[in-house]
Design brief:
190 residues; elongated; 9 helices; mainly alpha
């Protein structure tokens, strides 16, 4: 990413939308977004049809970063079990940060009540891809019911990230990975 003074107005708006919506929620005002980005409202509306479109574009732009956080560093040699557990180990580490507010994509889905909102569509796609990744790993690992296991894993991931993001649960004791280990064992995964 370019330094803030060299980033384009569009990139500054997308970065501001990512930061502020994660910290304050998707209802953050246009004035605050523009002020944070150092961009006029007029320029914002020249770049994006609406705040909703800007939020969706911001979420879309962060997908590669988000996905990269969940990929095992030795994905080629790690077992399916190790690749799944790594996702939860990363969640546990991330949740320890003072500025952790949970999964940004889950937060958008919870906050937005309109399933057809462009940002909700992006967030739902990210969650569906994570569920599919869990299902594929479960299948490779010999789980008896890969679809069910994927749903269970996503439920643990979203529940753990939401509870840790709300600061009502601490994951630094390995609760998420212990829970997932029990699920993997019960599913018959190697």
């Amino acid at each position: 990413m370019s330094p803030p003074d060299k980033a384009s107005p569009r990139d500054r708006l997308l970065d501001a939308a990512a930061r502020l919506s994660y910290r304050e929620g998707v209802s953050v005002g246009i004035e605050a977004l523009c002020r944070e980005a150092g961009v006029s409202k007029r320029s914002m509306y020249q770049l994006f049809d609406s705040k909703d479109a800007m939020l969706a574009a911001s979420l879309e732009q962060r997908i590669p970063w988000y996905d990269a956080q969940l990929v095992h560093p030795h994905a080629e040699t790690a077992t399916p079990r190790e690749r799944i557990l790594y996702v939860f180990e990363r969640l546990e580490r991330a949740s320890a940060a003072a500025d952790y507010h949970g999964c940004p994509y889950l937060a958008v889905l919870v906050e937005l009540k309109n399933p057809e909102h462009p940002a909700a569509e992006v967030a739902r796609g990210v969650k569906q891809r994570l569920a599919e990744a869990f299902r594929a790993e479960a299948e490779r690992g010999g789980a008896r019911d890969p679809e069910l296991l994927a749903r269970q894993l996503l439920l643990v991931f979203d529940g753990a990230s939401a509870r840790a993001g709300a600061k009502v649960e601490h994951l630094d004791d390995g609760l998420a990975t212990a829970t997932v280990t029990a699920l993997l064992d019960a599913a018959g995964m190697d």
